[in-house]
TrEMBL record:
Domain CRISPR-associated protein Cas6-like N-terminal: 27-142
Lineage: Bacteria, Bacillati, Cyanobacteriota, Cyanophyceae, Nostocales
Pfam families in alphabetical order: CRISPR_Cas6, CRISPR_Cas6_N
The protein, known as: CRISPR-associated endoribonuclease Cas6
Alphabetical keyword list: Antiviral defense, Endonuclease, Hydrolase, Nuclease
Molecular functions per Gene Ontology: endonuclease activity; hydrolase activity, acting on ester bonds
InterPro entries: CRISPR-assoc_Cas6-like_N (IPR045648), CRISPR-assoc_Cas6_C (IPR019267), CRISPR-assoc_prot_Cas6 (IPR010156), CRISPR-assoc_prot_Cas6_N_sf (IPR045747)
GO biological process: defense response to virus
CRISPR-associated protein Cas6 C-terminal domain boundaries: 159-279
UniProt key word Nuclease: yes
């Protein structure tokens, strides 16, 4: 894979220094296409895979943990921030523009790997034959969990949700920033990586009793969700405050503000390693980027097909039936967009023959549904 030339190495090293005890780091890469180029709507799968490949080249054990580990994922990645235009069944990027890509690390082990990796950084991110040159990289955050816990704070926590954000609740997606869901999302990461775990049930009961939404400005959109399926998520801004009685439990009062400051590192909700749930501190009325038309179309098609296949499989029921319905829907919708079964299999991490079989079964099921209408 392309590696950096000396001038880029020097540029990285002059800006990318953090202390040895740092436990959380946020990076922003400035990317530029070498020419006008088109990428596929689910390109965040490619960004996810590229990042894990970078880890694998240096530390295969860490890469396997990031990919398959049962705990919370100790990293997030964003979608590309910049001008993306729907062009037929793809998204168009322009050589005259730059794009920003955010990566965060939530564990000391991954932060240590990042420091080593950036001593010899790559020169480009390759999205399925669409090379994006890395123009620069900057630190956006660098801190320890103890510093989050002990830092000063305002009376309220204002958060901006820059990319669609959603939670899982009772087998469905919840596109609302309910306090218990939001802070449960942060607490899971805190308990896994901070070394200062807190009883989840007791803290969330306190959140339910004392955390208030003081104002919000939200909108919703259907978006693609990682390797399979689609979700309805929210973007916008929310401000959380506390009741007067909240301070009677000072350890939770203190943790509440620490978790708010953790949000930019860990993101909010699920699929944060595929670009969803990107979160920033502060209140802003600035409009969040719209989901490109082709991505919205594909997300809606996947959602509609999933509903059809789930309805047909009601007799079997259960999580397994829902997972198969989502896989069938994703495969069929992407085939309708002109993508090859080989590429779909690679992106979804499913054997080619299985994807081929699922595509046939999905087409047959769709025909049967049309015949029954």
């Amino acid at each position: 894979m392309p590696r950096s030339n000396p001038s880029i190495i020097n540029n990285y090293e002059s800006h990318l220094n953090w202390s040895a005890n740092t436990e959380l780091v946020g990076l922003v890469f400035e990317l530029a296409p070498k020419a006008d180029v088109s990428i596929y709507p689910q390109y965040t799968i490619g960004l996810h895979a590229w990042f894990l490949d970078q880890v694998r080249a240096v530390d295969p054990e860490l890469s396997a943990y990031l990919h398959d580990g049962e705990s919370e994922k100790p990293f997030t990645i964003s979608a590309l921030d910049g001008k993306l235009v729907s062009s037929g069944k793809q998204l168009h990027l322009f050589a005259s523009n730059t794009y920003h890509w955010y990566v965060t690390a939530l564990s000391k082990r991954l932060v240590t790997w990042l420091a080593q990796w950036l001593k010899n950084p790559p020169t480009e991110v390759n999205l399925r034959n669409a090379p994006l040159q890395i123009k620069s990289c900057q630190i956006t955050h660098a801190v320890t969990y103890a510093e989050l816990l002990n830092s000063d704070h305002e009376d309220t926590i204002a958060l901006q949700f820059l990319s669609p954000t959603s939670f899982r609740r009772k087998g469905h997606h919840l596109p609302l920033p309910m306090p218990t869901n939001v802070f449960h999302s942060y607490l899971r990461r805190w308990n896994d990586f901070s070394g200062m775990p807190v009883d989840q049930e007791t803290f969330l009961a306190w959140v339910d009793d004392h955390v208030l939404i003081t104002r919000h400005l939200l909108t919703s959109a259907k978006v693609l969700a990682g390797k399979k399926g689609a979700v309805t998520g929210f973007t916008g801004a929310v401000e959380f405050g506390l009741s007067k009685e909240a301070a009677k439990q000072p350890e939770f009062y203190k943790l509440f503000y620490a978790l708010g400051k953790l949000a930019p590192y860990c993101g909010t909700g699920h699929k944060t390693t595929f670009g969803l749930g990107q979160t920033r501190l502060g209140w802003s009325l600035q409009a969040t980027p719209e989901v490109p038309n082709v991505e919205s179309f594909l997300a809606k098609r996947i959602e509609d097909l999933t509903d059809i296949f789930k309805a047909q499989r009601k007799r079997t029921g259960g999580v397994r039936a829902e997972e198969i319905a989502a896989k069938w829907a994703t495969i069929l919708a992407r085939r309708e967009m002109g993508e090859s079964l080989q590429v779909i299999a690679q992106d979804m991490g499913i054997p080619y023959e299985t994807v081929k079989t699922y595509a046939k079964l999905a087409r047959r099921a769709l025909v049967n549904n049309s015949d029954s209408v």
